[in-house]
Amino acid sequence: SDHMENICGYLMKYTNLVTGWQYRYFVLNNDAGLLEYFVNEQSRHLKPRGTLQLAGAVISPSDEDSHTFTVNAASGEQYKLRATDAKERQHWVSRLQICTQHHTEAIGKNNPPLKSRSFSLASQGSANSPGVQRRPSQNAVSFFSVGHHRLPTGKRVPIMQPDHLVDVREMMSQAEGQQRDLIRSIECLPASGHLTSLDQDLLMLKATSMATMNCLNDCFHILQLQHASQQKGSLPAGTTISWLEPKISLANHFKNGAAQNFPAEINKAASVREEQSIAEPCQLTREPEEINPDEELEDICDDKEDDLGAVEEQRSVILHLLSQLKLGMDLTRVVLPTFILEKRSLLEMYADFMSHPDLFVAIAGGSGPEERMIRFVEYYLTSFHEGRKGAIAKKPYNPIIGETFHCSWRMPKSNAATDGTGSSARSSSEQGTLPKDPDGQAEPDYYTVKFVAEQVSHHPPVSGFYAECVERNMCVNAHVWTKSKFLGMSIGVTMVGEGVLHLLEHGEEYTFSLPCAYARSILTVPWVELGGKVNINCAKTGYSASINFHTKPFYGGKLHRVTGEVKQNMTNTVVCRVQGEWNSVLEFTYSNGETKYVDLTKLSVTRKRVRPLEKQGPFESRRLWQHVTESLRDGDIDKATEHKRALEERQRNEERLRAETETPWCTKYFLKDGDGWVYHKPLWKTASAAQTQQTDSN
């Protein structure tokens, strides 16, 4: 390649907290696939102070600034480097990536097949390899127990039947377990000595074994498609293809070790549960269901996500997963290990952003457009703290297409009479004109906020959610498309979409967006921070808000910092400024000079009300994921993984069937509206229809 050039120059290298950054002279040796550094240019003829093998390395521009980047070697060693400017960083990163790709691909291309070498590392080692010093007994066959499944020779392979596909899946699962054992054994070898983890033979073995298993999985997928297409003509409309469940419990896909055999009674019970869940979609109706809030009970689940044990114990699993990712890769289709999951669906997480419903209903009681905009900003900034369950960055379940979540909140009208932070939410005259129900009886002494969410699309993953308070004549409708990307040592999630708050009494609509989220320190203890700029606008009143979620700078600075301002666009006058931390204390300064502090850790949280599992539909979040959640609570990661895989496989099979039969997916509660999604019976439509009916009757 024209770009395979040897480059050299000074870069700053981060050593440790004590020494900090130091200038070092770096040399990229493309021929050897090495990155070397020296104290200075004059000492280049001496032995390098450090050397990294680039084969299998990951080169990652840092998201901290435009100058920093990291080189993560396959051995686990890392160089954190800084160029003088963004242009120089791009030059180094591009050359390093080209060299890395070249030498990584060469590992497989420049070596003979494993069969011809007979796995004999002792006899076939190169002169400059530690393999020449190995004892005869230290070859790969004796060191690693690699099993093989051979098909009978001379026999024609018959057309695959479902049972045969199950047998193939079982054999592949065993092979995957053995392949993971092989990689684990190689990675556990010392970095130096007679048999090292960096030996070229073993690196090639890792690469080829992984490629082989990927190829086999692709072939198995083709067989499943062929089997489904053969049955296409005999399938009645609406039939769901069940996934091919193995006869034995598979090993955890992300855990090293052989398959484990569970008692037959457990397998049978699990099989019955899964068969029931397979059959249920065929009986489902896509007609919207009216949920009676009186059937909902106060939620008693309190699943905090502060357990560090699983994250620390599975560090090798995370390293293996990261080795398969590329910088900027879209993680939408990447199956993540089960132990990093929260015990709730993403749809329920959106509901938890409404955990301060008293602040939500107080928005409508603002005395004027300025106060209503400020109250909305106060509510918006207080919603993120409770949406996170603990300090650890865990991931909620990816909702299955068609999955729904329903809940509601009740709050005494006396509590909702103020905004919860000190200012009046309704005047006494407003409180004295509360509407009555159709029977002429006084309404309950509480407000009800109802919430519904639905996964309306799988690719791309789009969720729609809607909340309303009929008594306050207000509702909010939103759709969110989550786009996640691998950023090196962190993961970024962009929330694409828009929400609209409707205050029908005032004829006002407030459009808003959501910030990006980042999972930082994914190799140690992952934590979440928010970043980016969001805007809130009300076209009718001319008021707008601009809010900045600041990511932590590399040196100094506070975590979770947020700043913002509310202004009147016509006069360009700032009427309120806000600063603080979105998960701690917020400071609001108003145009009259008054200052108010809101301690989010002390704000009262209203528990949501949810129907019991036995009253929920089969596609409601908690019932759909109940076996995964129960297994996670019990600490049984293997069992949780099996239940999760079963749900995901069912979704894939149903998606294939819809594609083959050209059957579009029909949503239940949300309708497509341009680029967005709107609740099928929003309050602004029902209120308008009721008003029209009342006018006609008069």
TrEMBL record:
GO molecular function, one term: sterol binding
Matching InterPro entries: OSBP_sf, Oxysterol-bd, Oxysterol-bd_CS, PH-like_dom_sf, PH_domain
GO cellular component assignments: cytosol; endosome; Golgi apparatus; membrane
Highest taxon of source: Eukaryota
Keywords: Acetylation, Endosome, Golgi apparatus, Lipid transport, Lipid-binding, Membrane, Transport
A Pfam family the protein falls into: Oxysterol_BP
Protein name per UniProt: Oxysterol-binding protein
Organism of this sequence: Leiothrix lutea (Red-billed leiothrix)
Record gene name: Osbpl11
